[in-house]
Amino acid sequence: MIDYGTIFLWVLALGLGWKAFQRHTARSRGGLKDAGERFLVIMPRIAVALLAAGFLAKLMPGDAVARSIGAESGLGGILLASAVGGVIPGGPILSFPLIVILYKAGAGIPQLVAFLTAWSVFAFHRVLIYEVAMMGWRFSAVRIISSLILPPLAGLLAIPLSLVFKVA
Amino acid sequence: VSLRLGRVFNRSFWVISALAAASGVACYLVSGPADFFDSLRHDAELVALLVPKIGAAMLIAAFIQVLLPRDKVAAWLGEKAGFKAIALSTGAGMVTPGGPMTSFPVVSALGEAGTGQRALIAYLTSWSTLGLQRILMWEVPLMGVEFAALRFVASLPLPFVAAVLSRYVPIDPKPPAAE
């Protein structure tokens, strides 16, 4: 299936590839091989994660989701989504299908924005494995404390924006 | 060709597969065969949509790493200061592809190049909330362009907010007389 987004990505990929091969042929060849390997590793995982997400969405009690983080849940829902999003472990392979589940089950747009922001900014496995190891716990602590307000802030900003962007 | 199958079908793959199988059985039994096949068809369509996108995203990530070696980016950002440093770090975070194994080495290289803490926090916040690769690879195909654009605009101020707030956090990032 081809859409404009895919065409854009491939034009970008081919353009960058052309430039990369012109400048650093050997390193580009290595990069190409790595990209192929990563694709083969990631694709089967995405396929099964999406399957799981689709099935779980059918099983999810929609009214419970809508009540706690639906569009009508307001600031309380935004705060709840921020808190839950911040403690969900795992990379995009699991979290994006989860977002789709919540969306289908009736979560509100500002609440989903808060959830995704919290997951992005706090993702615990990443913080523990990379940030503390490479930057030290003091840096992590400063970053996390300065970021506490970000998920609710993004959620609140999403309320007026959802009138501009036509997202149901 | 030299790919070891163990890397594809490792534990995390089997954990997700088991979850998919269990939820599939539960869906079939609880919601019925109609819902089960409906979900299956929808997911197959989604995977077909994702394959070309993810292929391109992997190539973009690989070539950006070839064209923009992280020590060069770090040296370039390290020269800037103040608001300019925060703005440029935000831009650099957006275009840094890949997961934490690509972004954190940049952060540590930036730290060594003398980039301030605020710029580093802006970079990491931008990479995690505005990272274009993740938006193009995951968010647009799964949630649609409108949602992705909305979230992107709502997140634009975040790197600046975090960078400014970090000034008021009473923790000294440098351990006293240790390193």
Draw up the topology in text:
The complex is a heterodimer of chains A (168) and B (179).
Chain A: H1 4-23, H2 25-59, H3 62-69, H4 74-87, H5 92-104, H6 109-122, H7 124-135, H8 137-147, H9 150-164
Helix pairs in contact in A: 1-2, 2-5, 4-6, 4-9, 5-6, 6-9, 7-8
Chain B: H1 5-8, H2 11-30, H3 33-67, H4 70-78, H5 82-95, H6 100-112, H7 117-130, H8 132-143, H9 145-155, H10 158-166
Helix pairs in contact in B: 2-3, 3-8, 4-6, 5-7, 6-7, 7-10, 8-9
Walk me through what this model shows.
The complex is a heterodimer of chains A (168) and B (179). Chain A is an all-alpha fold. Chain A contains nine helices and no strands. Chain B has 179 residues and is mostly helical. The longest helix of chain B has 35 residues, at 33-67. In chain B, α3 packs antiparallel against α8 (132-143) and α7 packs antiparallel against α10 (158-166). Chain B contains ten helices and no strands. Chain B is elongated. Chain B has helices at 5-8, 11-30, 33-67, 70-78, 82-95, 100-112, 117-130, 132-143, 145-155, 158-166. At the A-B interface, α1, α2, α5, α6 and α7 of A face α2, α3, α6, α7 and α8 of B.
